[in-house]
């Protein structure tokens, strides 16, 4: 619960910030959080679903199949090749021998890390790497980073908004627009950018 006047809106990272962050996390041996950030952005999954993923879900397949905790819906997600290579590379660096292990296992090796710990650690990492975002730093920024990147690459098209609406399981494009923080002025600027 937030305090009166406290800003709780989570924003997204710019794509260059995202790439720089995962590179630094891997370089500095923050392997779990490197994978968490990368997997969160590349899949658009909620933190509750990310934390349940095991290494074996990436073996011998091009798709990640999960049942979302919040919606109870089946999701089939195409695994990005860069993400797949990163999972394999970091798995070796982590000396993981049990493919049945949760990727984001706690320090006791018994269950996934807690989502409240994730948010605290993300704030620490963003401070450490001097990453400043408008709004609150939380695991929600993974989904928003994916959404804003997809919109930008597709020139904020209606088609991309509709596809993101489906990806995020929103009820309408306007919900997705609000969720991603897309302002009317940004959309209107698209018309100004058109040239003959």
Topology:
Layout: H1 15-27, H2 31-43, H3 47-50, E1 63-67, E2 74-78, H4 81-93, H5 115-128, H6 140-153, H7 158-167, H8 173-180, H9 184-193
Antiparallel strand pairs: 1-2
Helix pairs in contact: 1-2, 2-4, 2-6, 7-8
Question: Can you tag this structure with a few keywords?
Answer:
196 residues; mainly alpha; hpI Integrase, Chain A; 2 domains; two-stranded antiparallel ribbon; 9 helices; 2 strands; 51% helix; globular; disordered N terminus
Short structural summary:
The chain has 196 residues and is mostly helical. The protein has helices at 15-27, 31-43, 47-50, 81-93, 115-128, 140-153, 158-167, 173-180, 184-193, and strands at residues 63-67, 74-78.
């Amino acid at each position: 619960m937030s305090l009166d006047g406290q800003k709780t809106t989570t924003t997204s990272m710019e794509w260059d910030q995202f790439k720089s962050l995962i590179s630094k996390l891997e370089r500095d041996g923050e392997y779990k959080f490197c994978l968490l950030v990368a997997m969160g952005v590349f899949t658009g999954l909620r933190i509750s679903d990310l934390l349940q993923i095991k290494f074996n879900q990436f073996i011998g397949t091009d798709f990640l199949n999960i049942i979302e905790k919040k919606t109870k819906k089946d999701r089939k997600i195409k695994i990005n090749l860069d993400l797949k290579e990163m999972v394999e590379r970091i798995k070796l660096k982590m000396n993981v021998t049990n493919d049945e292990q949760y990727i984001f296992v706690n320090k006791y090796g018994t269950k996934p890390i807690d989502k409240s710990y994730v948010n605290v650690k993300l704030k620490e990492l963003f401070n450490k790497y001097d990453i400043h975002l408008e709004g609150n730093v939380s695991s929600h920024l993974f989904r928003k980073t994916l959404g804003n990147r997809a919109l930008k690459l597709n020139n904020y098209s209606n088609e991309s908004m509709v596809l993101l609406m489906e990806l995020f399981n929103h009820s309408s494009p306007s919900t997705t627009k609000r969720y991603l923080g897309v302002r009317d002025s940004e959309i209107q600027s698209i018309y100004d950018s058109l040239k003959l």
